[in-house]
Design a protein that fits this description.
The strands form two sheets. Strands 1, 3, 6, 9, 10, 11 and 12 form a seven-stranded antiparallel beta sheet that branches. Strands 2, 4, 5, 7 and 8 form a five-stranded antiparallel beta sheet that branches. Strand 7 (about 170-175) and strand 8 form a beta hairpin. The protein folds into two domains: about 5-90, no CATH class; about 95-220, Sandwich (Immunoglobulin-like), CATH 2.60.40. Helix 2 (about 25-40) runs antiparallel to helix 3 (about 50-90). It has three helices and twelve strands, in the order αααββββββββββββ. With about 220 residues, it is α+β, with helices and mostly antiparallel strands.
């Protein structure tokens, strides 16, 4: 035979305040303020009444505090919603290549992409490729380049025309405009294996145990 617990039993399981939501700190402050204000008005000296301007100022301050709390709650909800949407968008990138900050490169296909982002146009851009020991393998003179993102593929050849052995290499961008150095950001191609979300926001887990932020993406392939 089934039994039905009464409301008091259920309340005892979840705490005495389970049936009613607890008031926020702002609500409690408002209640105390209004109680004190009413008591003060009831017991005020008729010959020295409360200053209306002072009461109005206090009410305005209380309203401002409550408005800030409401705004913070709204912003928190909005940030949570944006995080969910961003996670869903990032999941669509699994299995695709993304151009992200980094200077690693390899002669292997899909790992041979050299990218860079220029802060302004440059009339002379050079790319130097180095092996794991730091030795110069190849220099590429690219001539003038526009500002923004630029992408090219390394043919895997060294400076003497021979094929570079398999391995990890790095590259460095040198951009100049009118004799003045142009700031640049090195970019490389990474394959998205999975996505995750933590305290730092949405993260992309790339091949080779590399992890970058969703906001680091410069281009999607």
């Amino acid at each position: 035979m089934s039994t039905v617990q009464d409301a008091s039993s259920v309340s005892s399981l979840f705490g005495a305040g389970a049936a009613t939501a607890s008031k926020s700190g702002t609500d409690e402050t408002k209640d105390r303020f209004l109680s004190l204000l009413v008591a003060q008005m009831k017991n005020q000296d008729p010959l020295n009444p409360l200053d209306n301007a002072q009461v109005t100022s206090q009410l305005a301050q209380l309203s401002t505090v409550q408005g800030i709390e409401n705004m913070n709650s709204t912003l928190a909800a909005l940030a949570s919603s944006m995080g969910v949407n961003q996670m869903a968008q990032a999941a669509n990138l699994i299995g695709r290549g993304v151009l992200v900050p980094g200077d690693s490169i390899s002669p292997a296909q899909l790992e041979d992409v050299i990218g860079f982002e220029l802060s302004r146009p440059a009339d002379k851009v050079k790319v130097d490729i180095f092996d794991a020991a730091g030795g110069l393998v190849r220099s590429l003179d690219l001539g003038p380049r526009e500002d923004g993102i630029n992408v090219l593929a390394w043919d895997g050849l060294t400076g003497n025309g021979s094929a570079a052995p398999d391995g990890q290499y790095t590259f460095k961008i040198d951009a100049v405009q009118g004799g003045q150095q142009v700031s640049s950001t090195a970019l490389h191609l990474g394959l998205v294996n999975s996505v995750s979300q933590g305290s730092e926001g949405v993260q992309l887990n790339l091949a080779g145990n590399e992890r970058v932020s969703y906001s680091d993406i410069r281009q999607i392939f």
